[in-house]
């Protein structure tokens, strides 16, 4: 991994103004956040800078205002939630540059925290306009990016600012980059990847990148049906992208050439209707799926064999559930495999990194989330990283 500067590389910051990009795009209900995980994630960076005597200016987006002021999308709506998590009062500043920001900085004491308004109120943000970035940069002495979840976007606050100020990774960004490097950048081998979820079409680039990098590719979820069908298996009424037969076969060939073993389920859980505990549910071999049945989870024998594969591996990267885990008992394979991975991680034989919206929910449901080495909540940025793409926000820090 190319190197980047962290907060450890900062000298004396007393009285200096830190422009800190954070993710405060919180899910809201009735005017307050329903989940403050994102604030918890950036808390160490904010408090560390404040404790060192910097004036900390938080820079974030909130919703999609498309370059215009929107009274419902001001970051002032999350001020209270941020204050609660930090256990500190912060000052809301209804601009991102200009005299109001200048005056506010004058009022802030060393160690105080200010919250700038939604940076996406200005079109220069998403256009990554260098003049816009320069205007913001003029208020700060240095820039800290602690928003990995926005690092796949080349916006002024996620990428542009790094060209105008000395740039550092915040603690959350640092932890994320180290974990991702340990999982795919420079992993201990053998490496296993679990890829599941609904569709192959949304994860083609992920699969193509992984076959060249991992020794075991475990395919589950709805996307396994597409691979099974491509191998000539009749998958009945299952979710399946029959038009991707050639693509699935090409990925299997690429894996063959790269020495990557592709694991498809050989037993599955099927049902005639998609509901909780349907009476039509049964476990069968993949070759015994009836015309009116659909595959909703990986079967118990395959799960056991996959657990044995993980036991031979040193590193695991996981995106996508093994089955339709939101509906019981089609969570069984996901839960069992997640528990195996968690136990191996706890035992010290496996480094486990996972990410993806539904994946995080599935691991939490399995009670395995806290035992994984690292679970990324970064959604789109995590997937682009799994696709092997350079993330502009990260590249700007490492330049
Ligand atoms: P993530 O958000 O972690 O990247 P995805 O969005 O790709 O994951 O996939 C999650 C969805 O895939 C879940 O809603 C789950 O119900 C669905 N899914 C998994 N297996 C199946 C299956 N066999 N049939 C239909 N849907 C499935
Ligand atoms: Mg999803």
Q: What's the helix and strand layout?
A:
Elements: E1 17-21, E2 28-29, E3 32-33, H1 37-51, E4 55-59, H2 76-86, E5 91-93, H3 99-107, E6 113-116, H4 123-126, H5 130-137, E7 142-145, E8 167-169, H6 171-185, E9 191-195, H7 204-211, E10 216-219, H8 221-230, H9 245-258, E11 261-263, E12 267-271, E13 282-285, E14 294-298, H10 300-311, E15 315-319, H11 332-346, E16 351-355, H12 357-365, E17 374-376, H13 380-386, H14 392-398
Parallel strand pairs: 1-4, 1-7, 4-6, 5-6, 7-8, 9-10, 9-15, 10-11, 15-16, 16-17
Antiparallel strand pairs: 2-3, 12-13, 12-14
The chain binds adenosine-5'-diphosphate and magnesium ion.
Magnesium ion is lined by residues 357-358.
Describe this entry's structure for a reader.
By secondary structure, the protein is α/β, with parallel strands linked by helices. It has two domains: 7-172, Phosphoglycerate kinase, N-terminal domain (Rossmann fold, 3-Layer(aba) Sandwich), CATH 3.40.50; 187-386, Rossmann fold (3-Layer(aba) Sandwich). The protein contains 14 helices and 17 strands. A hairpin with a 2-residue loop joins β2 and β3 (32-33). α7 (204-211) runs parallel beside α9 (245-258), α8 packs across α9 and α10 (300-311) runs parallel beside α11 (332-346). It starts with 16 loop residues before the first strand and ends with a helix. The model has no long low-confidence stretch (mean pLDDT 96). Adenosine-5'-diphosphate binds at residues 196-198, 202, 221-222, 239, 295-296, 319-321, 323-326, 356-359.
């Amino acid at each position: 991994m190319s190197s980047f500067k962290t907060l450890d590389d900062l000298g004396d910051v007393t009285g200096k103004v830190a422009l800190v990009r954070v993710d405060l795009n919180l899910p809201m209900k009735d005017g307050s956040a329903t989940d403050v995980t994102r604030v918890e994630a950036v808390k160490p960076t904010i408090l560390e800078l404040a404790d060192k005597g910097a004036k900390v200016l938080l820079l974030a987006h909130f919703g999609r205002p498309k370059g215009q002021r929107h009274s419902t999308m001001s970051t002032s709506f999350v001020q209270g939630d941020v204050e609660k998590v930090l256990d500190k009062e912060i000052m809301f500043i209804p601009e991102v540059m200009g005299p109001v920001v200048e005056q506010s900085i004058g009022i802030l004491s060393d160690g105080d925290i200010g919250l700038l308004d939604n940076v996406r109120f200005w079109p220069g943000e998403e256009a990554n306009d260098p003049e816009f970035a320069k205007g913001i940069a003029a208020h700060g002495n240095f820039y800290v990016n602690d928003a990995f979840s926005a690092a796949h976007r080349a916006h002024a606050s996620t990428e542009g600012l790094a060209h105008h100020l000395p740039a550092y990774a915040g603690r959350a960004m640092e932890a994320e980059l180290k974990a991702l490097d340990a999982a795919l950048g420079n992993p201990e081998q053998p490496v296993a990847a679990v890829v599941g979820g609904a569709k192959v079409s949304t994860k083609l680039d992920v699969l193509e990148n992984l076959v060249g990098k991992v020794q075991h590719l475990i395919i589950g979820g709805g996307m396994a049906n597409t691979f099974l069908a491509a191998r000539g298996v009749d998958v009945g009424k299952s979710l399946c992208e029959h038009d991707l037969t050639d693509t699935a076969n090409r990925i299997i060939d690429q894996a063959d050439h790269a020495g990557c073993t592709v694991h498809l389920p050989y037993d599955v859980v099927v049902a005639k209707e998609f509901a909780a505990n349907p009476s039509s549910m049964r476990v069968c071999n993949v070759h015994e799926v009836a015309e009116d049945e659909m595959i909703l989870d990986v079967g118990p024998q395959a799960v056991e064999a996959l657990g044995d594969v993980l036991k031979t591996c040193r590193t695991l990267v996981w995106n996508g559930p093994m089955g339709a885990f939101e509906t019981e008992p089609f969570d069984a394979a996901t839960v069992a495999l997640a528990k195996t991975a968690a136990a191996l991680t706890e035992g010290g034989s496996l480094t486990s990194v996972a990410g993806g919206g539904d994946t995080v929910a599935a691991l939490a449901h399995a009670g395995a989330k806290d035992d994984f080495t690292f679970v990324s909540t970064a959604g789109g940025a995590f997937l682009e990283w799994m696709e092997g793409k350079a993330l502009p926000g990260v590249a700007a820090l490492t330049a």
